[in-house]
Specification:
CATH class of the largest domain: Alpha Beta
Distance between the termini: 88 Å
Number of domains: 5
Catalytic activity: Couples ATP hydrolysis with the unwinding of duplex DNA by translocating in the 3'-5' direction; ATP + H2O = ADP + phosphate + H(+)
Enzyme class: isomerase
Bound molecules: adenosine-5'-triphosphate, magnesium ion
EC number: 5.6.2.4
Family: Belongs to the helicase family. UvrD subfamily.
CATH topology of the largest domain: Rossmann fold
Helix content: 40-55%
Number of strands: 23
Radius of gyration: 28 Å
Largest sheet: 8 strands, mixed
Pfam families: UvrD-helicase, UvrD_C
């Protein structure tokens, strides 16, 4: 064996070496958590390069951008920076968007197309529902979107959906789907699902392009294969032909994206579809102590639908997992804080600690307790940077400049800041554009405002707006750098003034965010590259700070590992989640989620639940999670505190709410921002009070808790 080989194969067991060095034909690695699947995949890339494979012939797919970047780094480490640069290591979404940038025709797109994220897509679906004059109560956007998205995961077209429809409702959903797809094309945009789907359908239709990519990507590698959907699997299958040098790793016990259309059949049927497959199983776990693995193994064997495998490790027995049953969510958070501080004194750092929960909403109480104790933390996937309003507004402006057909972006900012283009005018413009089959901005450029049937008052504002956009677009033609364009947008649109005037309290933070955006823009090669990067940014990408503790959902934690792991909120209705209690299959997916969570832990695992917690403004009592009941006492230690004084915070808000409200329904009130209005309803909630006011100028608003800004008139 050459010396370089040894270096690359060093620190791998025999079966891992087999997985790394079997280069020709399909290879399937099925193995439990922490058995080195990702390590093997990374080493295999290095090995391929070492065997003389050209970096540009390799396409490796990971599940998050963060995982992709980590892998680039590891490969960089193993084979040097030049080779690492030429490789395609990316998520399905970024690989497909890269292909579409070069071949937009695959998705019936034109260059400069926009990638719509979930929020953009929602707006467009809603608009399609309205355009078809369907009742938005019977066709709630979210429900319709879910149906469309799951159809797309299975590569089902609107036509096929209509043919398969059982009953009128489903047929109408298919019509919305069709209208939505048409609107995407008209806006020169793709949503996340279509990134993959359009490449698959496009490659099927365009033999030339298909053969090009098949020749180009001679070696394909996929991590977390158990979570691929049908469309993603088709893509891989298509690209791998005819040589089928395709290497996939996965663990069916960690399949947790069923709700998004992931298909376990992909991994189970892999060897059947490709009969020359070499299947390799790994059993040794290199991540966790045996105490943690025992708990994980006992838990997952309760699932009926699975292949039996048992993980073991040579890392010793270790500390037995601890389960703490708190009186309420605040005490649970205090437990996390105090335990985290204890492990610090054992020589760990906060970076070694992760708190994992089932739903994002659970982070709030934890965050409050951590801030109170002065413990630095980072929430992965909370209100994400790119979801903040000022960031989305700026990006919408930039998108219009690059893609004037992007009506969703245009609608977002046409009247932000306020420039007298109200909802009525926008509706009028949208429908005039629709009948002329052009985008809203083009309608304004091609037709006079009279022709479009717009009022003369609106006409002036609109002309002004178009002039401004034209001016800014000049910058794009001159290929001005992204931060320059961004600066011009902020000043020309008077956006900064708006922020300053709107709310002095939050202005500072928002200006900081915009400065941060400018910094990111400065690092991008071009404005297009910048927009693409922001569209594909996933929550997990937030850089992990060296000295803070990490808070995140189970879905975000997949593939990661931490010395100390807390799994909180082990209650019926939370974990398992209340939306997943109906079928055994749903419960099994919840159990796999918990399995993923606990197998992130290397040395210490701490589980907890609360008898009582505040939830969406109410106090709820949940029984202990059935998953705790799955575990025999032997695999964990149990702790409960009975002498705890519950919920001081909640009591105080309650008291405030119990004081009589200073006004009654029907009273006239004044608000500094909205002016005068009438109190329409006062609702006492267990922890707070809700006041509904109908303002003469601003319409209905709802206020919570302290209402210092409302004065009786
Ligand atoms: N042969 C080995 N010797 C020593 N450490 C190893 C070996 N194989 C893997 N490891 C280490 O074990 C840990 C788990 O490996 P890795 O993350 O690749 O597992 P995985 O199978 O991808 O897990 P998951 O299913 O959670 O994604 C890592 O820290 C890795 O570096
Ligand atoms: Mg992995």
């Amino acid at each position: 064996m050459a010396e370089a080989d040894q270096h690359i194969l060093e620190g791998l067991n025999e079966r891992q070496i087999e997985a790394v060095s079997t280069l020709e034909g399909p290879v399937l690695v099925v193995a439990g958590a922490g058995s080195g699947k990702t390590r093997v995949l990374t080493r295999r890339i290095a090995y391929l390069l070492e065997q003389g494979v050209n970096p540009s012939e390799i396409l490796a797919i990971t599940f998050t951008n963060k995982a992709a970047r980590e892998m680039v780094e590891r490969v960089h480490h193993l084979v040097g920076v030049e080779a690492a640069k030429a490789l395609w290591i990316s998520t399905f979404h970024s690989a497909c968007s890269r292909i579409l940038r070069v071949h937009p025709e695959l998705g019936r797109l034109r260059s400069g197309f926009t990638i719509y994220d979930a929020d953009d897509a929602r707006r467009l679906v809603e608009r399609s529902i309205r355009a078809l004059e369907l009742d938005t109560k019977r066709f709630p956007t979210r429900a319709v979107m879910a149906k469309i998205s799951s159809a797309k995961a299975d590569l089902i077209t609107p036509r096929e959906m209509a043919l398969d429809a059982h009953g009128a409702y489903d047929r109408l959903v298919a019509t919305v789907y069709e209208a939505y797809e048409a609107a995407l094309i008209a806006n020169n945009a793709v949503d996340f699902d279509n990134l993959v789907n359009s490449v698959v359908t496009g490659l099927r239709e365009h033999a030339g392009v298909r053969e090009y990519y098949q020749r180009r990507f001679r070696y394909l590698l996929v991590d977390e294969y158990q979570d691929t959907n049908r469309a993603q699997n088709e893509l891989i299958g298509l690209l791998a032909e005819p040589e089928n040098n395709i290497f996939v790793v996965g663990d069916s016990d960690q399949s947790i994206y069923g709700f998004r259309g992931a298909d376990l059949g992909n991994i189970i049927g892999f060897a059947n579809r490709l009969p020359t497959t070499r299947t390799i199983a790994l059993e040794q776990n290199y991540r966790s102590t045996n105490a943690i693995l025992e708990l994980a193994n006992t838990l997952i064997t309760r699932n009926a639908v699975r292949h039996d495998k048992t993980l073991w490790s040579e890392l010793g027995q270790g500390v037995s997992p601890l389960y703490f049953k708190a009186q309420d969510d605040r005490q649970e958070a205090e437990f996390v804080v105090s335990q985290a501080l204890t492990v610090l004194s054992d020589g760990y750092s906060l970076r070694d600690v992760a708190v994992i929960y089932r739903t994002n909403a659970q982070s709030r109480v934890l965050e409050e307790e951590l801030s109170k104790a002065g413990v630095p933390y980072r929430v992965v996937g909370g209100v994400r940077f790119y979801d903040r309003r000022e960031i989305r507004d700026m990006l919408a402006y930039l998108r219009i400049l690059v893609n004037p057909d992007d009506d969703v972006a245009l609608s977002r900012v046409i009247n932000t800041p306020h420039r007298g283009i109200g909802a009525g005018t926008q509706e009028q413009l949208a429908s005039a554009a629709r009948t002329r089959n052009v985008s809203m901005l083009h309608a304004l450029e091609l037709f006079s405002t009279e022709e479009l049937g717009l009022s003369s008052r609106a006409a002036k504002a609109l002309t002004h707006f178009v002039e401004m956009i034209d001016y800014l677009r000049e910058l794009i033609h001159e290929e001005a750098p992204a931060p320059v364009v961004l600066d011009e947008v902020m000043t020309r649109t008077e956006y900064l003034e708006m922020i300053n005037e709107e709310d002095p309290l939050t202005a500072e933070g928002r200006l900081e965010n915009l400065a941060e955006l400018r910094r990111v823009a400065a690092e991008a090669d071009s404005l297009e590259a910048f927009l693409e990067q922001t569209a594909l940014f996933s929550a997990i990408d937030a850089e992990l700070d060296d000295s803070s503790m990490t808070l995140m959902t189970v879905h975000m934690a997949k593939g990661l590992e931490f010395p100390i792991v807390f799994v909180v909120g082990l209650e019926e209705g939370i974990f398992p989640h209340m939306r997943s209690l109906t079928t055994p299959a749903e419960i099994e997916e919840e159990r796999r989620l918990l399995y993923v969570a606990v197998t992130r832990a290397k040395q210490r695992l701490l589980l907890s639940s609360a008898r009582r917690r505040s939830f969406q403004g109410n106090v709820i009592y949940n029984p202990e999670s059935r998953f705790i009941g799955d575990l025999p006492e032997g695999v964990y230690r149990r702790q409960e505190s009975l002498d705890y004084q519950p919920m001081p915070e909640h009591e105080s808000t309650k008291k405030r709410a119990n004081e009589p409200a200073p006004y009654r329904v029907g009273d006239r009130v004044f608000h500094t921002r909205y002016g005068e209005g009438e109190v329409r309803a006062i609702r006492e909630r267990s922890v707070d009070r809700e006041v509904v006011v109908y303002f003469d100028a601003a319409g209905e608003r709802v206020f919570f808790g302290s209402m210092t800004k409302l004065k009786l008139v």
